[in-house]
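Anyone able to model this chain together with biotin?
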Amino acid sequence: MLMKYEVLKHLADGKWHSGEELGHAFGVSRSAICKIMAQFTELGIEIYRIKGKGYQIPQGLELLSLEKIHALLPKNVTKQIQLTIMPEIDSTNQYLLERQKIAPSGTAVFAEYQTKGRGRCHRSWYCAFGSNLYFSILWKFEQDAAELKGLSLAAGVAVIHALERYGLHGLQLKWPNDVLWNYQKVAGILIEMNGESNSSTHIVLGIGINVHLPQKDNLPPGCIDLTSIISHRPLRHQLAAYLIEEIIAMINDFSKKGFLPFFPQWQALDAYFQQPIKMITPQKIIEGVGKGINQQGEYLVRDHQDNELRFLHGEVSLRSNDPLRN
Ligand code: BTN
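re: yes, here you go
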């Protein structure tokens, strides 16, 4: 990956580079460069090729830089994190889960690409190189796991705050924490735990944001990228910095006050409140009307017999053909 990544940095400027120039710069043949370009296409990077001119990434790529992200973060936030950027990794969540015993609380990672990005309910998470944001942070809470109920909902609120600071409006949440714009998914959150020590609960909070998909057809059904919403390509460094800031603020608040401060904020963002929905659980599908959450973060559904049912796990879907469930 390292040499591929170096070639990519060269092409990130959006200018034309001939196979000969690249071959010379990296000490490889033109046909080796041609093979590398084919691999870039497989990674979801759009490459133009013209005989005699070479290769170009139209509009270039904004590859993530640690220095640029740090420069945008307030000092009190940088003090709380140890951030790394990986060009390619299986999954940023997996990376931190494997290191959670030795890595300090606040270890965080962005990846330009994930080969096995994972989503909720054992789904995979679509990846394209250098276009979206794939972020995970390890946190060691003093509370036990039971007290962290609602953390994933609070994370959804924090992601919306970050996107709003970037100027995106009209974002909503689908329980527990899908970030939607006009009922299309913009971002997803996956919290994983891999054991507790005596005094703390270790969690890995992973966030994927669809920032800019060069080939929109590759987006899974029911999803949308930020470029399509704001009609220009967002700056990933600024988004990354807002995301870190809001996540750290949320974690600090949650550690002191739990879910309570986030409860009214989540309610106000519920996309499916008073909507005809289905709640899909491994055991059954229940139809009813969405009634928001309670203070424990459970989702409430009023069924056709007028019973109010509570769910701690499950998947909410609009009854009118939710594209996210197809
Ligand atoms: C969902 O299904 O909505 C959750 C998606 C979470 C995706 C992110 S991308 C960064 C982190 N690493 C992973 O493998 N998954 C999460």
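The first strand starts at residue 48 and ends at 50.
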